[in-house]
Design goal:
By secondary structure, the protein is mostly helical. Helices cover 83% and strands 0% of the residues. It has 8 helices and no strands. Helix 5 (53-74) packs antiparallel against helix 6 (80-102).
Length: 143
C-alpha cells in the first residue's frame, strides 16, 4: 500500500507545474526572469550593505558628530536640514542593522525580494534613495 500512496502523492515537479499553470504565477515568474540581473545586483548590494552596516552606521554617526561640533564651534556652517536628514539616515542604518542581526537570513530568493518591494516602508525608503540618486547624478553631471 505504501507504494500506491507514493504514486498518488504529487511530486514537487508536479506541484510546480500546477502552480505555473496559474497565469498570475506564470507572469510573476516571467517578470522575475526578465529582471534576474537586476535582482542579482540588488541581492549582492544588499548583502554588502548588511555585512558592512555597522561600519557604515559608525562612520555616519562620526561624521554627524563632527558636523555638529563644527556647526556649534563656528556657527551655522551646515544646513540644519542636511544634519536632520543625516541624523535620520544614521538612525535608520543603526535600526536596520539591529533588525538584520536579529534576522540574519533576511529575504531568501528573488520572490522574497519582490515581496519586500511591496512593503510600504521599503517602497518609501527606495523612493527616497532613488530621488537622492537622481539629484546626485544631476550634480555630478553639472560642472
Amino acid at each position: 500500500m505504501a507504494g500506491t500512496d507514493r504514486l498518488l502523492t504529487p511530486s514537487p515537479t508536479d506541484e510546480l507545474l500546477a502552480r505555473l499553470a496559474d497565469p498570475q504565477i506564470a507572469r510573476a515568474v516571467s517578470t522575475l526572469l526578465d529582471n534576474a540581473d537586476v535582482l542579482a545586483f540588488l541581492a549582492v548590494g544588499l548583502d554588502g550593505i548588511l555585512s558592512r552596516g555597522e561600519v557604515i552606521a559608525d562612520s555616519l554617526a562620526d561624521g554627524i558628530s563632527e558636523l555638529r561640533g563644527a556647526a556649534g564651534a563656528a556657527g551655522p556652517l551646515v544646513d540644519p536640514g542636511t544634519v536632520r536628514v543625516l541624523s535620520r539616515l544614521a538612525g535608520a542604518l543603526t535600526e536596520g542593522l539591529a533588525a538584520a542581526e536579529a534576522r540574519p537570513s533576511g529575504p531568501v530568493g528573488a520572490l522574497a525580494l519582490l515581496r519586500a518591494l511591496k512593503d510600504e516602508e521599503v517602497a518609501r525608503g527606495l523612493g527616497f534613495l532613488i530621488q537622492v540618486a537622481r539629484v546626485l547624478g544631476r550634480q555630478i553631471s553639472t560642472p
